[in-house]
Each structure stands twice: as C-alpha cells, then as structure tokens.
Amino acid sequence: MSGDSFGKIFVLTTFGESHGPGLGGIVQGCPSGIPLTESFLQKELDLRRPGQGVASTKRKESDRVKLLSGVFEGKTTGTAIGFFIANEDARSKDYSKIKDIFRPGHADFSYEQKYGLRDYRGGGRSSGRETVSRVVGGAIAKAFLETLGIKVYAYTLELGGIRAKDICLEGIEQRPFFASSQEVVPIWEKRVQQVRTQGDTLGGIVELVAKNVPAGLGEPVFDKLDARLAYAMMSVGAVKAVEIGAGFAASSKLGSENNDFLTSKGFCSNHAGGILGGISSGQDIIVRVGVKPIPSVAKPQKTINKEGQEVRLEIGGRHDICAIPRIVPVLKAMFFLTLADFVLLQKRNK
Amino acid sequence: MSGDSFGKIFVLTTFGESHGPGLGGIVQGCPSGIPLTESFLQKELDLRRPGQGVASTKRKESDRVKLLSGVFEGKTTGTAIGFFIANEDARSKDYSKIKDIFRPGHADFSYEQKYGLRDYRGGGRSSGRETVSRVVGGAIAKAFLETLGIKVYAYTLELGGIRAKDICLEGIEQRPFFASSQEVVPIWEKRVQQVRTQGDTLGGIVELVAKNVPAGLGEPVFDKLDARLAYAMMSVGAVKAVEIGAGFAASSKLGSENNDFLTSKGFCSNHAGGILGGISSGQDIIVRVGVKPIPSVAKPQKTINKEGQEVRLEIGGRHDICAIPRIVPVLKAMFFLTLADFVLLQKRNK
Amino acid sequence: MSGDSFGKIFVLTTFGESHGPGLGGIVQGCPSGIPLTESFLQKELDLRRPGQGVASTKRKESDRVKLLSGVFEGKTTGTAIGFFIANEDARSKDYSKIKDIFRPGHADFSYEQKYGLRDYRGGGRSSGRETVSRVVGGAIAKAFLETLGIKVYAYTLELGGIRAKDICLEGIEQRPFFASSQEVVPIWEKRVQQVRTQGDTLGGIVELVAKNVPAGLGEPVFDKLDARLAYAMMSVGAVKAVEIGAGFAASSKLGSENNDFLTSKGFCSNHAGGILGGISSGQDIIVRVGVKPIPSVAKPQKTINKEGQEVRLEIGGRHDICAIPRIVPVLKAMFFLTLADFVLLQKRNK
Amino acid sequence: MSGDSFGKIFVLTTFGESHGPGLGGIVQGCPSGIPLTESFLQKELDLRRPGQGVASTKRKESDRVKLLSGVFEGKTTGTAIGFFIANEDARSKDYSKIKDIFRPGHADFSYEQKYGLRDYRGGGRSSGRETVSRVVGGAIAKAFLETLGIKVYAYTLELGGIRAKDICLEGIEQRPFFASSQEVVPIWEKRVQQVRTQGDTLGGIVELVAKNVPAGLGEPVFDKLDARLAYAMMSVGAVKAVEIGAGFAASSKLGSENNDFLTSKGFCSNHAGGILGGISSGQDIIVRVGVKPIPSVAKPQKTINKEGQEVRLEIGGRHDICAIPRIVPVLKAMFFLTLADFVLLQKRNK
Fold first, then answer.
1. CB contact (8 A) between residue A80 and residue C125
2. Is the pTM of this model over 0.95?
C-alpha cells in the first residue's frame, strides 16, 4: 500500500491538497452498528480549526465534514465510510510568487526531487491541511473505541522550551494551547506574542495518555504497539521525536529503577508507558511527541530557486506561530486510529 | 499483514524463538542480480554476537546463518530469500523456575494477557534473540543498497547517562560498544563493571547516520521516511524513544534557528536530519534511539505469579548488562530495511 | 487492508452506495507526470452509463466524475488522486417495500448475516453501482499504461447462450452490447426483447485481450498475473467464472497440443493466454469471464423476510435485463488496474 | 507485500526451490491455543507425495515437515509458525542440459525476461514443488478451522476430458486420483496408461466443497469471498480456469432459473455456490478448477534457446503425467487458507 493509508484492518486512506476542491478520506474496517453522525465528527474537527488561539493563523476555514457513505440510520454499516471537507478559502494567488522557490524547512525541495514536478500552492499534498482527514478518521476510530470505554487525552506539555508544571486531565479542550494546566497559559501567551513580534515561530512538546486500554494490544516483533504509535505520531508533519513512557530518560536509569514492579494490586509505577514487549499491559499508554517550530517565519530567509540561484525569501500570507495547538487533536486522532486497529487485530485471539 | 513482516516491497518476514529449533526469515522483493553470499551475511551477524564486550553475556552462540533459497550462483534470483539460524545453546531448564512468574520489564505479563498462554522459555517470541533475523534481513538490504553507494553508520553515543564527546565514523566496528569515539570507552567500561557488581543494568543512546541516500525517498502523509524509521527503530525491543535530526531539541528552538537554509552549494545545516516533509533531501539521514536498561537485573525483585500472588524473583542464567552494543547492528539493519523499501517504492516515479 | 482496496502499489480504494450522496475513490501510486483530465475519465465512465442499449435500464444517471486531488496543471503529481461521482437520481422510496425481504440472488441475506444490519436501499454497498469507482480508477490506470503503449480490448462473446462467430477488435465501443462482431447483434437484440417480455434476465461471456504487455509482469507463487486477474475479474458482482487463455478447454487437451511452441519468430500459438508460470510472456493476455443473469427478474419469486416468513416478491423499479454491456467497461477497468500494479512492481528488477 | 505471501490476517509466506536446501514458510495470524503437531501436518503433506498413483512420477521424496516455531506444548502460541521441508532427492545434473533452453509451457522464458537470470534447476521458484509449503500452510489453517467445524472436500471430477458420473464425499482420500467416485477410476487409469505410452500428458477438473462455513464471510467490493477463492486457486501452477457454483453454465441460464429461492427451510438450490454478493450465505461453498496438462511431455518438442536459436527438446528425468492427483491437496490447502483469513477478518463485526 502506498503512503496515504494507515492501519491494517481499521484503515484510513486520505487524499487532498490545501488548494484543490477539498480533502477527504475513506475508513475501512469499522465494525457495523457503531453510532456515528456528522455532528460528532464535526465536533472533533472544530478542535483543529485555525483562528482559535493566539498561536494560530487568522485564516478562516469553516471545515465542514460531510459523510458520503458507510452510515445508515445513524449507525455504521460495516462498509467503507467516505467523507469530504471542501476547501472554502483557498487563495491560490498568495502562493504564485514562491512558485519556483524552495522554502526552507518545507517539503518544496524534496517533493521537486521526488516527483519532478509539484503543486506549489500551499505545499500541495505536503500541506499541514492534510491533517483534517486524519482528525475525521480518528474521530471515527474514537466513536468505535468509546463503545469499549477507551479514552485518549492529549495536551501541550511544553511550548517554546517552557514546560508546564502540572497535568490536569480535566478541561484540556477548554484551555488555550490545550495546555496541560492553566498556570502555564499566560506565560506561553506572552512568549507567543514576543516571538510573533520578532517574526519568528515556536515548537513544543505534546503528551498523550490513553486510559482503559485492555491488556494484549500490539503484535510481536515489528508491529509492537509502541512501534505503531511512533509511526503514527512521526507521520504528522512537524513531529521530529517520539517517546514512550520514560522515553529518553530511561536511557540513563538503572534497570532496577526503570522496571515497574508488580504487586497483587497491580503495577507500582509506569515507566514503560503501559507497553511491555510491545504489548499493552492494561496500564495507561503514555506517549510524548516533539514538535519543531513552524518553518514559515516572517523574517527574511536565504534559499535557492529551481535554477539553483540564491534568493531572499519573505513569506507573506497567513501563518501560524506554532503547530501547537492545532497539532494536538491531530496527534490524538493518530492515537485513536492506532488503537482501533489493534483492538480489531486482537479479536483473532479471543 | 501480521506483525512479523516489515516493509511494503522489500519485505522481511521472520519467525523463531530463543529455545526452539532456531530462527529465520524470508526476504521478498530483493531485486535480481545482487551479489549475495552466506559469508557476507555471517559477517553482519557476527557483529551482534554475544560474548564480545564487557557489557555482554558469556553465553556462547555461534549463530551460523544458512541461506535456503533465492540465491543462485552467487546472485539473488529476485525470488524469496529464505534463511535459518539454528539455536545451538538453548538450555530450557534454566527457565523452568520462572515459568509461572511475570518478570518485571519483560513481556511475560502482556503476552499471557494477549494469548492466554505463552512459551516461557527465554521469553519465547519476545526474546531479544528474534533480532538475529533482523540482522540477516538487514544485511540483504545492505547488499542491495551497496550497489547504489548507500552507507549506514551506527554507533553508541551515550551509555548509562555518560555521553561521548566525539563522533568518529571510521573504525566504529572495531571499538568496544561500537562507541562513537575511543575516548569514552574506558569510562564506559568502568561504569559497566561497577553496575555489574551492583547486580544492575544500564541503558544508552544510539545514533545512526545514512550517507549517499538519494533525494526523493519517502511517501507523503503516513509513510514519511521519518515515520517509517521511527516505526523501524521502535519495533526493536528495549527502544523507548526515537528522534530525527535535532529531535526533541528542535522543540525549544525558534523557527529561524531550526530551518536549514539553502545556498547554491547546498544546505547550510542539517537540523532536519535529511528529511523534509517526510521525503529525503539528499543530506545525511540522522536518527537517534533511546535504549532502556535491560530488565533482567541480578538484584532480587518484587513481582507476582500467574495466580496473582506476590513473589520475590531472583533471575539466574547469563544476561547482558546492557542491550548496547548488541542492539547497534540490529538498529542498523532496520535502517537498511527501511531504505531498501523506499528505494524500490520510488522507482515508480522514475 | 480491507476489501475496498485493490492493488499493492497502484492502489484503488473506493466508497459509496447507490442511494447516498455519491460514490468515489482514491488512487494511490500513480506515477507523477502522467497527463490526466476529467474529460478523459468521463469518456470511460460514459461507456458504463445505463440507458444506452436494449439490455439496459432506462434509469437516468449523468454520472459526472469530479477530480478532487492529485492532478495539477493537467498532470498527475504522484500523490493521491481523489474523485467523486454524485448520485443524482436516487429514489429511496422505490426500495422501502423490500426493506425486510431477502431478494433471491442478491446480497441481502448475506449482508444481514455479516453485519447484523444493512442499507436496504438499492443494495447499499453491494449495489452494482459501486463499479463507477472501478471504471474511474481503471481509467487512471489506462492513462498511465497508454504512456507505455499497452492496450486492453473487452467485448461480449456470448449473450444468453448465443455465441458470436467472429471477433473484430475495431469498433467495439460503437457496437451495441460491445459485441465482438456486428453479425450477432440483431440476434442478441431479438433474444433480449424476448426475455424482457417474459420478465426474465440473461447472462453472458465477456472476453478481454491486452496487447503490448511487456514480458516479465507478475510475481511468483501467489501473485501470479493470472491469479491477480482472476481475483480482479471475480471481484466484479455477477461474475461466476474466469478463464485464462484456453481455460477449461485446456483440461481436456494433451500436453503436446496445449503447449505453445517457440520458434525464432516467436510463439506458434497462445493457449497459455500470454502467461507462463504466472509471468507475462509478451504475447497477448487473454481472459474470459462468465457473467450470471441479473437476479432482479420481473417475474414473481419465492423468498423469505427477516422474520423467516415466506413471501412472494415482485420487484418493481427500473432494472437491466443483463449485466452486459455495462459490465464490459468495468471488467476492462479491472484489467487496467491489475496491469498498472504489475508494471510498477516490476520496476524493482529494472 | 510481494507475491510469496497469501492472506491478510492469517498469512502464509513461503520460500524455496526444488533444487536448493529445501522449502518452507511462515504462518502469521493463527490464533493461540490451537492444537497442532508435526504429525498432523505430515498427514496432509503425505497426500501430495509423488509416487502414489499411476499418474505420478516415481521420484522419491519423503517430504518431512519440521516445525520451527510458534507451537509450544502441542498448541499454537499465537506467534509466527515457521516450518521447513528439506529437499532430499535433488539431482541437479538432470537439468544441466536444459540450462539455456526455454521449455514450452514452463516459466523458463518468462522468468528469464523478468529477472534477467534464473535458477534453471527444475524451474527454481516456478517449480511445482513450491506447493509443499502451501499444503503445510493450509494444514495449519485446517487445524484452526476444524475447531469451528468447517470441512473442505476436494476431488477430481474430470481427467483427460472424461468426467466422473458420481460424487461421493466419503473415502476420497483413499481413492486413486482422489476421484469423486470409484466407478471412473479404472477408466482414468486406462487413459493415463495410454497417454503415458504416447509420451504425452493430461489435464483435468477438480471440484472443492466447503461445509459448515458460517454465513457472513467475505468482504464487499474487491475482497469478495469468490474473488479471493479465484485468486487462491489460480495462483496454483497449471490452473487456467476457476468457477464458483454454476460458473460458466450460469451465463446461459435465465435469471429465474439461476436464482436460488429461499423458503423458511432454507435455500432451494445452490447455483450461487454458497456466495451471495461476495459473502458466504451459510450454504456449501462450491469451486471448480480447470487444470492444464503438464507441459513436460516426453515427446520431442520445438523450442528456442537463450540465443533465440531453434532447438529440438527431449525432456528426460522423472515427470508426472498429470498434475492431478497431486494438485488436489494443494487446492484444498488454498481453500483452507482463504477461509481462515476470512473467519478472522469477520471477527471485527462480532
């Protein structure tokens, strides 16, 4: 399968560019009889919408998802679920001046090398806008996983190098930046304003926790649950690092410190992030994701054009200061998609 | 496909447990006409052999790989390449006393939950010994990639929290721990001896660099080159974290710092780790991998048995102090396998 | 992958039901730089349109295909190609009276068993209308294969048990029934009228020939070219039999009769249908497909409802007398899709 | 995935040539806890053994299958099952004289075109000997399906154009040719002797019936149960035609004749072969397979060598007169593999 599909049984396949008619996808493998409506999907999609926080672009996209198949009388039929999100606010002319220029940190150069041609309008297929389809696919997975009581929380742990002190799983979606706690919000807001003034951008770290995941998910060897989660997360543009549980910190611990001991009441700690030998243990699944700063800085940059000549680039248009918070629901969607697939794969052993 | 297969066109499928007749695998998709011999594979496999460094077990395994198909008169025929490594030194009785006990940090608990039964001898399929098949599969990929001039270097950057100061790509395979430079070796050796005396174990960080990778490898959206590399690396037991290029460090940089500017002479830096928008840019591909300490500590541990009763566990047998250095050729093999797959996938655009 | 996807590198994934908003699909893996327009796709799709021949329903569907992504300035970009065909003439009320009845020969019974519920309007996902997406996907494959000079001819060889005497590859698309020759057309037309009067339906046999297919396509063992062609053809509703080359007739021949001898000028015959050991030989690829009569007969039929009670069924609505000719472009599309996939797979050996 | 793998969840991957060290495979996805022994597999494999009937070669191969992994204390562990069958009687020198000659009806020509080189000893990967791995894989599927009460019968219906009059499902494996009934056996034996004297070979037709298959197996659109069965059967060398239920005969029937009516007691007939809309209906699944005569005739044949020069070929060695009866257990194995995969896929809807 080519790279627009994710999953083995519960499979999302997507299409679309930021400046064509729209974007969408197909979910295969969703069990029949799961309650599903457009408004449920829309609610998830709205969390990703730009123009909500101080770090986001003001570009207006209503991003209305339309269900095209696979749902009948409010329930999934078990057959392919098609969906579509029309592009409403795509101003192609914004991009004409960068048509022949390779923007630093973007896929312009590598796409040109790969395909010999490229849709230069807003990055074409490499645009972050492709993630709308992930969010819808993930929401379908969520609808299925909710019938099993599985929940996923996703929140920003660090922004621009400033780490939040607390994690409060309640109220995340109401907080700016989907911050892990309220105390850090004004500090991050100040930092964002400062960087915006400088014409620069920021990165951050997102943490995700899945609860009520049954033990036994994941497959030996290559399709370990952590391997598929790393794959899922790293497939999102701007992500450059992924950790499970203690992650890199485990590298400098002793074995006796890092092991999670078991008592008759359960595990005593969760350095493993809920995954042992690649298989879920029934504990919380914990993933952390490093997000790079957005490459579209307002400051002038040095780069080259298609002829290899050096040029000075000043990017206009409307751009976010940080992939956070919009990336948060996208990463959550990838978590749901990964879990849904493994829940179904595990049915063979039941 | 189930989880014993890796790749889409260049596909490795493996089998085997540490205490059965042996382990092996099948490589599909290798182009025809590539020179390949058992001795070439054996050389790679020997790098993973235990009993070589101070961090390794003294258990003796000659690990002889035998080619079973797909090679004729010294060249690949283009058809499935089967191979086998017999288990020679498998003392099953060593494990009988932990038959009903869930060892902390191991897959015992999660496998029991997943399958309802498990091969308790040495971890069965979850044993680190499964990686012999990865090394052989990776060596086949290497044979193919060498015809294109692609090279991969893998070295230990940090052990037990002590980071090496230098990176010298020459002579890695001759250095203990596959250390990134010689200066750190005596320090690590001392640390290993110390921890061994304590009955404890260590983790570390491995870095990998691929050179001469053509621009254009990777697929948009889900099968980005970095996503597949994260998947590949995280699928190796003991790995808990993966970074590309600047990795987590990028999260606290400004966009203007993190972007790699382009001049007519090429890129000015490589924070991206050679991957832009998920597609290789022609620069070095850089991956860092966090390895947890080995869970089999000699110290007594608290855990439970299958009946849920608390027990005190003292692991006997021969165990490594650290997954490093033996994990290094395994990670390198995963890099080769990932690249070989993408090189073939990219042929559709040529 | 679930069953809405076809192919390994050149992959078509589809969605849609006859009575929802519409149908569509995503093509992955099409090489970049292939000329492609909506009007090219529309031309292929128009061949499948109902209401053209005496055997077809009078139901009016304009079936306009809309390209949603993957094409830029008239050429494929190498990324996912999304497309959509809106349902314009879907009268749901026509089907309400058969809501709880299992129509003989249809998927009603088996879908109910599989999913526990079903979209009863026009068969839902099991409707023959899903084939519009195949035709569009196949047309994209055709656009690619035409750049290599590969052609596929598809024609009706037999209708209602009456076999055509000749095969004339020129002018097929202009002839009623896509008949293999003109002489049989009036005979078939008479037979169709006769059966229509009886309230009954007909089946037939379709033959397909691919020309200029390079030698070397197909993979050993399971993915033989003939195996994938059989899979492709049999996946089309109403198909109950598939033959390659001499097909069943080869079963009663002697080996010396059936072998195709080779001279310095090439093969002396083509009983093998252009495939040896599952790999194309460079000869014409020949496939024959048996199509059952359409199950929606106007005559009253005995069946049961969801409660298991026996009922007398009289199907109203607009129905075709025969899946031929509309199935012909669908089968041709499946041939294109199969070949496109193998052409790309074979690039690894080049 | 390349073409040495079959299945989506229950996956068989094979390797091996007739003149290397041996052949084998890996089964992924078999549920845990299924009783499985080498002797069970051996029993199935023995049915395929040469030298049993008058139509078979006298070549002696003991074909001992060895289980390499995935079974512990007599039960499947749920992890990859590896197996191996050593080649014991491979006389390479027999083949040296046809090294540069393309044997008519064999894969010699097409493999040379595909790969640019080939293992000429006994056909290499294209040898019918690869089917030993299918039989073992199918036997593992059988072990799983037996726990659900599913049975598959496979028998020869026609040999050399002579059709059996009766079908008696009892005692098939005891009858020569796996004949569908005893009455035809002496007639076939006479025909085989006659053709052997002429230095020629025969084809035939095999029928397969699966009983107790639950309704609901198969997936909409491309992965219909009949599509996957056609794929499975046609992937076996020498197969040139596949029919489901009435097959080609349905093409000349009226819809009212071909439909299987339903009463409160069940279906009144089974022209559909137990599959409606690609999904099993709970009736017997019926498949018929056309097998071409073996191309290795003793009679001299005209062909060319690698230089394109015309040569006269006289094949020595030990060859079967007909792929029947040895192909019968192979086809049965493919049926088991197909069903096992769909049984597991259907679990997502339960």
1. yes
2. yes
For the packed helices D327-346 and D131-146, what is the interaxial angle rounded to 10 degrees? 50
Both tokens of A123, joined, read 């990055």
- Report d(CA C25, CA C16) in Å as an integer: 8
Scanning B273-292 for CB atoms below 8 A from A yields: 273, 275-282, 290-292
- CB contact D59 to B (< 8 Å): no
Write the DSSP symbol of residue B291: E
User: CA-CA distance, C96 to C112, in Å (whole number)?
Assistant: 16
Lowest mean pLDDT among A138-147, B237-246, C80-89, D92-101: D92-101
Residue A130 touches partner C, C-beta closer than 8 Å: no
The C-alpha atoms of residue C187 and residue A161 are separated, in whole angstroms, by: 81
What residues of chain A lie within 8 A of the CB of D350, using their CB? 347
Is A348 an 8 Å CB contact of chain D? yes
- Which structure tokens are listed for D319? 């060859």
**Does residue A233 belong to the interface with chain B, where contact is any CB pair within 8 Å?**
yes
Handedness of CA C125, C130, C133, C138 (dihedral sign): positive
When the pLDDT of each residue in chain D is averaged and rounded to a whole number, the result is: 93
d(CA B29, CA B80): 7
Inform me whether the pLDDT recorded for B58 exceeds 60.
no
Contact with chain D for residue B70, Cβ under 8 A = yes
CA dist C7 and A37 (Å) reads 31
> What pLDDT was estimated at residue D200?
96
Distance, in Å, from the CA atom of C299 to the CA atom of C199, rounded to the nearest integer, reads 5
What integer best gives the mean pLDDT of chain B? 93
From the list B79, B220, B344, the residue facing C348 with the nearest CB is B344
ipTM of the complex as predicted: 0.96
Q: What token pair was written down for A171?
A: 């109220």
CB atoms within 10 A of CB D178: 22
Fold of A5-349: Chorismate synthase, AroC fold (3.60.150)
Q: Is A55 left (phi over 0), alpha (psi -120 to 50) or beta?
A: alpha
What letter would DSSP give residue A317? S
- C-interface mutation test, from B140, B222, B346, B348, most C Cβ less than 10 A away: B348
Question: Is the separation of the CB atoms in D144 and A349 below 8 Å?
Answer: no
Cα D35 from Cα C134, distance rounded (Å): 42
Closest partner CB to C32 (pick from B80, B347, B349)? B349
pLDDT of residue C2: 80
Task: Give D218's contacts (C-beta < 8 A, 6+ positions apart).
Answer: C3, C110, C114, D224, D225, D226, D228, D275, D278, D279, D280, D342
**At which residue do the structure tokens 């072969």 appear?**
D273
Kindly identify which residue of chain A lies nearest to residue D34, measuring between CA atoms. A349
Q: Residue C193's CB: how many other CB atoms inside 10 A?
A: 13
Record the tokens describing residue A161, joined without a space.
Answer: 């190098």
B89-140 residue pLDDT tens: 655 566 777 888 999 999 999 999 999 998 888 889 999 999 999 999 999 9
Q: Tell me the count of A-D CB pairs closer than 8 A.
A: 33
Distance CA B100, CA B97 (A): 8
Cα–Cα distance for residue pair D301/D108, rounded to 1 Å:
15
Residues A194-241 have pLDDT tens digits of 999 999 999 999 999 999 999 999 999 999 999 999 999 999 999 999
Strand spans (E) along chain B: 5-6, 11-16, 22-28, 65-67, 71-72, 75-76, 81-86, 151-159, 162-163, 204-211, 239-244, 262-263, 266-267, 275-276, 279-280, 285-291, 301-304, 310-313
Find out whether B210 and A221 touch, Cβ atoms under 8 Å: no
**String of b and e for C268-284 (b: at least 16 CB within 10 Å)?**
eebbbbbbbbbbbbbbb
90-119 in chain A: CB under 8 A from chain C: 114-119
